[in-house]
Amino acid sequence: MKFPKILFIIFSIVLAGCSNVPVTQQISETPKNVTIFKNTVVSLTFDDGAADNYDVRSILAQNDLHATFYVVSGFTGMDGYMTEEQLRGLYEDGNEIGGHSLDHVNLTEISGDDLKKEICQDYANLMDYGFRVTSFAYPFGHYDEEAKQAVIDCGYASARGVSGGPETIPPADKYALRAMPYIVNDTSVTKMMRYITSVEQEGGGWAIFVFHRVCDGCSQYTVDLDTFSKFAARIADQKQNGLVIKTIDEVINGK
């Protein structure tokens, strides 16, 4: 049975009126709970070179992520610290190896030749391992103008503190990089993600994360492996929404 022409026209108008939004627009809309990142970069950094830091190697590789490992070179190979071979494995994966002083001393409590030795010998040791070394992190986040100048004189292209973030790109002072709040043993994946989304919501910037130990409750400044694994998967997934993850060197040198 054929519809009268007038009924067919009315039926078509009713169907068209069921939605005021074109189909193509409906498909392209982003769900309200998804953040689109346009101006935010994340850097994952690990301080000290503790042996348990090596446990994140496979997690980074599985999620196509790279991190910056700031190493106290005078401790390399000692009990509780990564070996030269482990550092080389991280480096060969595309991770960055940076300096964190020779003996992890407070750089504001020494000066002159002692200060230069802590920073320059650290740089030389890492270079001797065959690494491209450009980034430094101040032990405990403590520095003064003399320490900053020593970092410059010893050949580093940047130096990171432990607070004051997020940082801008380019940074106001690349020898005083500002980091997000310390990651401690009760920092949740949700809180870490909130740090990142808040940076984007406030106009974008550089969220530098500071990790220390990777273990379950071995110190206050730690993240357990399961939490880091979940966080790595979350930020890797957000790359499809525009989130950028780079090492410190990649940001500073515009790679």
If you compute it from the alpha carbons, what radius of gyration comes out, rounded to the nearest whole angstrom?
A: 24 Å
**Biggest sheet features:** 5 strands, parallel
Q: Quick check: average pLDDT?
A: 90
Determine the N-to-C terminus distance: 68 Å
Compressed to H and E, one letter per element, the order equals HHEHEHEHEHEEHEEEHEH
Q: What's the CATH H-level homologous superfamily?
A: Glycoside hydrolase/deacetylase
CATH topology: TIM Barrel
Beta content:
15-25%
Instruction: Categorize the overall geometry.
Output: globular
Got a strand count?
A: 10
Explain what this protein looks like in three dimensions.
The chain is of the alpha/beta class and 255 residues long. It has a single domain (29-252), classed as Glycoside hydrolase/deacetylase (TIM Barrel), CATH 3.20.20. It is 35% helix and 17% strand. It has nine helices and ten strands. The protein has helices spanning 5-16, 23-28, 57-62, 84-92, 112-128, 145-153, 189-201, 225-237, 248-252; strands at 40-48, 68-71, 96-99, 135-137, 158-164, 177-179, 205-211, 213-214, 222-223, 244-245. Strands 1, 2, 3, 7 and 10 form a five-stranded parallel sheet that branches. Strands 4-5-6 form a three-stranded parallel sheet. It has a two-stranded parallel ribbon with strand order 8-9. Helix 6 (145-153) links the parallel strand 4 (135-137) and strand 5. Helix 5 (112-128) runs parallel beside helix 6 (145-153) and helix 7 runs parallel beside helix 8. 38% of the residues are buried. The model is unreliable at 1-30 (pLDDT under 50).
